[in-house]
Amino acid sequence: RRRRTMRLEAMGRDGGALVKAAQAAVKLTLHMGGTGVNIPNKGKKDSPMRMLHELASALPADSLRLLCMHYSMKHNYAGSSAKTKAAFENFCDEARRRNVGQILLVSGAGPRPFDSVACLQQLSLPQENCPEIGVAFNPYIP
Question: Given 3, 99, 122, 134, which is the most exposed site by the fewest CB atoms within 10 A?
């Protein structure tokens, strides 16, 4: 028998729409036996920390466990490698405290001064302070 690996994605124009989309996606995931719900970070205005706080204030902890919060290095670059890494570590720690199951660290298209691979190599948070982390790396080859 094949294992179901369905994942849904929840997006919204604002916090309220994101929460409604995530609630519906979690409900459908549980009903259909899926594995989780992706929360993408598609633009600079989509702050992963803000999205995390909005979702954590509206969803129960067992629903947050199904979430895979995306964190884009492209959209969350903080001006230096050290500041960007510190912001990501802060996000990881907060996501763990909020019971988020996974984080997908995404480089983004094009050249990056600090990409997802470099961030993981420099990560100094203890493993127990992080949810499970996956990586989507888009190498820039001119």
Answer: 3
Q: What is the DSSP letter of 127?
A: G
Q: Write out pLDDT tens, residues 49-63.
A: 999 999 999 999 999
CA angle 13, 17, 19 (to 5 degrees): 125
**Scanning the structure block, which residue is given the tokens 């179901």?**
4
**pLDDT at res. 129:** 80
Please give the Cα distance from 85 to 119 (Å, whole number).
6
d(CA 37, CA 25): 7
Q: Which residue has the tokens 């961030």?
A: 119
What gap in Å lies between CA 55 and CA 67, rounded to an integer? 10
